[in-house]
Design goal:
Number of strands of chain B: 33
Number of helices of chain A: 5
Distance between the termini of chain B: 32 Å
Helix content of chain B: 10-25%
Strand order of the largest sheet of chain A: 1-4-2-3
Strand content of chain B: 35-45%
Oligomer: heterodimer
Helix content of chain A: 25-40%
Radius of gyration of chain B: 23 Å
Strand content of chain A: 5-15%
Structural class of chain B: mainly beta
Number of strands of chain A: 4
């Protein structure tokens, strides 16, 4: 075998060289650690919506909501607790791969819209979810599509668009944990959460 | 194995390329192979495997290094080489346990009778030493036991900490020599490490070598991390994080752990992919429930929208020449695979079978597209870029998200267990044979196989 190189070219220098080349190749660097969390809503003074906020368990979908500065949990008018008391459901469900809002969903969303109109200082965050029987990227898109379907209907009922945010969790946060049709049906959902 | 010898100058060239980037040393008293012998290559019959003996390396003097004594390394290196070759599915490895350890003199003058008696077709011997600067010198010799002749050899001079890379390079050179395929062992995997119960899964960005070694968590699990992809030079990883509460794609710099947003947008961005030259990034973005695919310079700037159909256009993977993109879309009513030119023109559907098709990945060789087929269960398969020649490689409840080895001959994917939701990373070769689970410290998903290291 004849392809031996001179001794001097060590691996370390080869690696160092490639590292140098890389630095040149990648432009966008010197930005701080993480981008600041965007406030929800256009420049409103709404508390940051951070489902991962400390205090609650990191993966409780409801942890961290209503952290708008009040010390304890707000259960008064316009609170999330009030919202849950006032509407038939905080969520609508979808068929496999579907995202249409059906008649039963409309009844639920109409109640949510009425509540939202009553408390104009609240923001609605609609979480879109998919069941586990989909691929990851597609489910992120599908969750967004479902959340948006609920959002569009709420807007059509008169809730200002700048008060309704969406976030997709794809298949990352199942509500029901079984691998069966009943569980999947519960997981294909758009859940409305309110932020005061 | 029906092995025929044929001349091919190309194979010699390939081997050279694979080895030159690593520093090579001149090993003492090599059994010189002639140019003619080097040019010969044994064609590989996939239906059968060859037995290859991998004894412990000779360590003439035990010297302590940052990675342990050369005596200990002589065994560990042989174990890595044997494990690589065995994992390829092409070879049945014997040793290093249970067979003799050659002396230094034997490394270049094997006792072929001993190896014939153990039914070895091939023999790998080597040595490990330390040079005056403290670097490891590792020699790697391949012999044909039947012919009693030398087939190839290579030497590597590496920092002690990189001893596994030298072992992988040795295995790669032998794999290449005996199969005519490009190397793939000296490469890395980025993936998502998963812990916790199904309803409260913690997902962390993690990296490891192709064999699971040198494992490292890159994020702490505070924010869900998904779908990593290595930059072609291994310096950065594109991935999705919920760091600001929303799905957004970031470029994570492995050396500094600094991450930057790929694009400033109030809309969710996901499914990030590098172009083969690392200069561009594909991503998907949902606006008003409609998801399309965009391309942006890796340095930032103004993105260009590539798809405009109503529906979900998502994912994407470049052809190796960077001229085409395979992606998935549900514009027909269900997830299917499409191909388009790099500028978004010429969009055409290529998946034709029954069921849904998702997560297309273009092979680095260009000859195949791997996908997830959803028809009841999720199975991983391949098809030609024109949609013909479909072949399913796995059969389980939920196998998803194939990623190609750098040589395009092996595919990794992840498997989800029904009920528990536990995940694991698996690999399978293009024939659907040799399926095996990768060792990961915790559950794993979303594997992304990087290129061969220089």
């Amino acid at each position: 075998m004849t392809h031996f190189l001179p001794k001097g070219r060590a691996l370390a220098s080869a690696l160092a060289l490639s590292a140098l080349l890389l630095t040149g190749a990648c432009g966008k660097k010197k930005v701080d650690e993480l981008p600041p969390a965007p406030g929800y809503g256009e420049g409103s003074g709404v508390g940051t919506y951070d489902p991962y906020a400390q205090g609650g368990s990191a993966y409780d979908p409801n942890a961290g909501y209503n952290t708008g500065g009040t010390g304890g949990v707000d259960t008064g008018p316009g609170s999330q607790a009030d919202f849950l008391r006032s509407v038939p459901s905080d969520r609508i469900l979808f068929d496999t791969d579907r995202y249409n809002v059906d008649n039963a969903d409309m009844v639920i969303l109409q109640a949510q819209a009425q509540w939202a109109m009553r408390y104009p200082n609240t923001i609605l965050v609609i979480e879109g979810h998919a069941d586990e029987r989909g691929t990851r990227d597609y489910n992120l898109a599908l969750g967004e599509r479902r959340a948006n379907a609920a959002r569009q209907y709420l807007i059509s009922l008169g809730v200002p668009s700048n008060r309704i945010q969406t976030v997709s969790y794809g298949k990352e946060r199942p509500q029901a944990l079984g691998s069966d049709e009943g569980s999947w049906a519960q997981n294909r959902r758009a859940v409305t959460v309110t932020v005061k | 194995m029906t092995s025929s010898l044929r001349k091919t100058g190309r194979t010699f060239l390939r081997t050279s390329i694979a080895l030159t980037a690593m520093s090579l040393i001149t090993a003492p008293t090599l059994a010189q192979t002639t140019e003619d012998e080097v040019d010969e290559v044994v064609t590989y019959d996939v239906a059968k495997t060859r037995t290859i003996a991998v004894p412990r390396l000779a360590a003439p003097q035990s010297v302590n290094t940052a990675a342990g004594s050369t005596d200990a390394l002589s065994l560990q290196i042989a174990q890595v080489i044997a494990s690589d070759l065995e994992a390829s599915g092409v070879f049945q490895a014997i040793g290093p346990a249970g067979i003799k350890t050659p002396t230094e003199a034997e490394v270049t003058a094997p006792q072929f009778e001993y190896w014939r008696a153990r039914n070895a077709n091939q023999l790998i011997q080597g040595f490990v030493k330390v040079d005056e600067s403290g670097k490891l010198l590792i020699g790697c010799y391949l012999y044909d036991v039947g012919f009693g002749s030398a087939q190839a050899n290579a030497g590597y001079r590496v920092d002690a900490a990189d001893w596994r890379r030298a072992a992988h390079k040795c295995a790669d050179s032998i794999y290449g020599k005996l199969t005519g395929e490009m190397p793939f062992f000296d490469s890395r995997i980025a993936y998502i490490a998963e812990t916790g119960p199904k309803g409260r899964r913690v997902k962390r960005l993690a990296v490891m070598d192709s064999d699971g070694a040198n494992h490292r968590f890159l994020t702490n699990g505070q924010f869900t991390a998904l779908t990593p992809r290595w930059s072609p030079d291994y310096s950065k990883i594109l991935y999705l994080s919920y760091a600001d509460g929303n799905p957004r794609i970031y470029i994570f710099d492995e050396k500094t752990s600094v991450q930057t947003l790929v694009t400033e947008s109030r809309n969710p961005t996901f499914a990030p992919r590098w172009s083969p030259d690392g200069q561009s990034i594909l991503y998907s973005m949902a606006i008003g429930g409609n998801t399309d695919i965009y391309i942006i310079s890796a340095r930032g700037g103004t993105p260009m929208r590539l798809t405009t159909e109503p529906g979900i256009d998502v994912g994407g993977s470049f052809s190796p020449d960077g001229k085409q993109i395979v992606f998935e879309s549900d514009r027909s009513g269900s997830q299917q695979i499409y191909v388009m030119n790099r500028d978004g023109t010429g969009q055409r559907r290529v998946s034709r079978g029954s069921g849904r098709y998702a997560t297309p990945e273009w092979s680095p060789r260009g000859d195949l597209i791997a996908f997830t087929r959803i028809a009841g269960d999720f199975r991983v398969g391949t098809m030609r870029p024109d949609g013909t020649g479909e072949r399913l490689l796995t059969d389980s409840w939920q196998d998803e998200a194939p990623t190609f080895a750098p040589n395009g001959r092996v595919i990794q994917f992840f498997r989800t267990e029904k009920g528990s939701g536990e995940t694991s990373i698996w690999q399978v070769d293009l024939t659907g044979a040799n399926e095996r689970k990768l060792p990961t410290p915790v559950d794993g998903s979303d594997p992304a196989w990087g290129p061969i290291r220089p």
